[in-house]
Amino acid sequence: MAEITKILTEHIDKPGIETFKVYRENGGYNAVEKALKEMTSDAIVEEVKKAGVRGRGGAGFPMGMKWSFLAKPEGVPRYLVCNADESEPGTFKDHYLMKSIPHLLIEGMIVSSFALGANKGFIYVRGELMYVIRILENAIEEAKAAGFLGKNILGTGYDLELVVQPGGGAYICGEETALLESLEGKRGNPRNKPPFPAVKGLYQCPTVVNNVESIANTPWIVMNGGDKYASFGVGRSTGTKLISASGHINKPGVYEIPLGISVREFMESDEYCGGIRHGHQLKALVAGGSSVPILPAHLVYETAEGNERLMTYESLSDGGFASGTMLGSGGFIVMDETTCIVRNTWNFSRFYAHESCGQCSPCREGTGWMTKVLERIENGKGSMSDIDLLVDVAKKIEGNTICPLGDAAAWPVASAIRHFRDEFEWHITNPTEATKPGAIYRGEPILA
Amino acid sequence: MEENKVELVTVTIDGHQVEVEAGTTIMQAARKIGPEVAPPAMCYYKPLEGTGGKCRACLVKVAQGSTRDPRPMPKLIASCITQVQDGMVIENFTSPEVIEARKGVVEFLLINHPLDCPVCDQAGECHLQDFSFNHGVGTTRYEEERRTFEKEDLGDKIQLHMTRCILCYRCVKTADQITDKRVHGVMNRGDHAEISTYIEKAIDNDFSGNMIDVCPVGALTDKTYRFKNRVWFSKPYDAHRDCDKCCGKVHLWYRGEEVIRVTGRKNMWGEVEDFICNTCRFDKKESSDWTIEGPTKVSRHSVISANKYRADLISKPEFALKVAESQYKQINDDRPFLKELPEIKKSEDYQGLMKQNKDYFRK
Ligand SMILES: Cc1cc2nc3c(=O)[nH]c(=O)nc-3n(C[C@H](O)[C@H](O)[C@H](O)COP(=O)(O)O)c2cc1C
Ligand code: SF4
Ligand code: SF4
Ligand code: FES
Question: What is the ipTM of this complex?
Answer without folding.
Answer: 0.92
